[in-house]
């Protein structure tokens, strides 16, 4: 991993919630800071904190949807934690204390966290990036082999957001908010059937899911090689969707539209 200092690495603990959501706790052993990435469900988050012996100090919201911010107020009342979210969505993030915008940084203990605005799924969606630990919490922007639905954004907006994530180091660990990987893989092979890396990955995913194991985290590098939403330059994808000479944005838009109908 791209360790840029001698700080103890952040620990990430995954918490399956609701139907197919993942909540995460991020813990800094040095400062004791512990953040909940989104608040899909209060009970399992409180139980995980208890099991780990960690005290919740922060909530980092990626976006306002109920399966991401629905537990904010109850967790704040129980733990007195600080709620961080997008300044653009301040009126939709319950209990928000700290409002942040694109490129803003925040010291999580001694670990610098950077906010990246990644709109498209919602207009105020953000990603939390911890450069020294090489981890990114991308919410519903990027999924393993997928990307978020465009509820409040155009394909142009989402493609720009995805390009921001593509610019992160390839080894960056990507923690997304849902286990959608199996169905994303089923779709991915329909638009890029000739991608050998994708076929190999699909088999691995099927093995993991058969044992009810998570497919997360993924990495930026793996997504670059296999995620059809990040590969509008692929000749195979362009041929499959019949857009050989279109722009990357147009190809992305068509792939997204096909997934919506899949
Ligand atoms: Zn969402
Ligand atoms: Fe969601």
Describe the protein's topology.
Elements (H helix, E strand, L loop, with lengths): L10 E7 L3 E7 L6 E4 L4 H11 L5 E3 L5 H4 L2 H8 L2 E5 L11 E3 L4 E4 L2 E7 L8 E5 L4 E5 L2 E2 L2 E2 L7 H12 L6 E4 L4 H11 L4 H15 L7 E2 H7 L8 H6 L7 H14 L1
Parallel strand pairs: 3-4, 4-5, 5-6, 10-13
Antiparallel strand pairs: 1-2, 2-3, 7-8, 8-9, 9-10, 11-12, 13-14
Helix pairs in contact: 5-6
Bound molecules: zinc ion and fe (iii) ion.
Describe this structure in words.
By secondary structure, the protein is α/β, with parallel strands linked by helices. The strands form three sheets. A six-stranded mixed beta sheet has the order 1-2-3-4-5-6, covered by helices on one side. The protein has a six-stranded mixed beta sheet with strand order 7-8-9-10-13-14. Strands 11-12 form a two-stranded antiparallel sheet. A hairpin with a 2-residue loop joins β7 (105-108) and β8. The chain has nine helices and 14 strands. α5 packs antiparallel against α6 (196-210). The chain has a domain at 181-261. The mean pLDDT is 97. The chain starts with 10 loop residues before the first strand and ends with a helix. The structure holds zinc ion (ZN) and fe (iii) ion (FE). Fe (iii) ion binds next to α2. Residues 63, 65, 68, 121, 140 line the site of zinc ion.
